[in-house]
Amino acid sequence: MSITNQLSVTSAVLGLSLSVVSSIGLAQSAERPELSGVWTNASRTGLTRPRGIEQLVVSAEEAEQIVANMGIAGISPDNIAAGPAIDPNTGAPPAGGQDFGLRGYNLFWTDPGSTLAYVKGEYRTSLIIDPANGQIPRRVNPENFQRRNFGIRYFTGVGDAAGPEAMPIEERCLIGFGNTAGPGMMGTLYNSTYQFIQTEDYVTILVEMAHDARIVPIFDSAEEARATHRPESHKPWFGDSRGWYENGALVIETDNINPLQMEQSSIPITEDGKITERFSRYSDTEMVYQFTVEDSNLYSQPWTAELSYHATDGRLYEYACHEGNYAIVGILAGARRQEAEAEAEGR
Q1: Quick one: 154 exposed, middle or buried, by C-beta within 10 A (0-12, 13-18, 19+)?
Q2: Where are the chain's structural domains?
Q3: What radius of gyration, in Å, describes the C-alpha atoms of the chain?
Q4: Per residue in 170-223, pLDDT tens?
Q5: Residue 331 to residues 73, 83, 160: CA-CA distances in angstroms?
Q6: Mapping DSSP to helix (H, G, I), strand (E, B) and coil, where does residue 276 land?
Q7: 9: buried, middle or exposed (CB in 10 Å: 19+, 13-18, 0-12)?
């Protein structure tokens, strides 16, 4: 073989090698994991461990049994097992009480996943891994915090309709419900799909639920990221997030989260707290996600949750949150009508 041909072959091999390295991308980098793509974190595992279950990790058979005994959207396991639809001729459910499950005529609109959270080859009974009991270590007497829990409204449909601001922010279509966009991003009843877009300077996380988006600037180090936080007076939805790469993971530190969001969040912090998230690749199809919550005003110790995002061939769908935006007129008008009728009856 001539020198010219040898050089040609060498160049071709070198070019192919570079092409392969390029196609692998940064997924093999020791410092920066490749996170771009479409992922889902849908699972039936809750943030905290259910009563009566002590262990974090269970077998596939145990996981299947746990899921079989779970309700969905207020519908009991017995009603789920009875069939996919509820007879529309049965009439209205009784007034009051936790009747959400009776109102739903089927479950076609839910997509919470069919298994417990599958993380690094294990089925998990809670997202919380520390403390070991799988529970949030809440302080008995929290400080500097006001909690507005709208959970009962979800189950009953009964709640304050004094004005637009009295309604939950998710119902008003300001941000998604279920903490899907975080910080502390968890799946919910449906729309648990995410698209990660990674550039040299930013990571953008597009959340299917309510089309929320987190745009996180990336810095060369933790020190630089912390030095460039916005002023404390800036309290945006999802907080002030800054990121950097460390030991093969994307680390995002967030504080200054909007107080209105925190009042209704399942993962609240005060202005003294912070949430630190870590994203790393476990395999070609799995991203492991941890978040640690630190706030001595609310919690007796820092606590950590862990779940996985799994690659999906699906796509993000538009979330047209029209119910709250349009129906709010009817909701408020109905409330004023009830008040007028009560006044007329002398109640």
Answers
A1: middle
A2: 127-347
A3: 24
A4: 888 889 988 999 999 999 999 999 999 999 999 999 999 999 999 999 999 999
A5: 22, 32, 10
A6: strand
A7: exposed
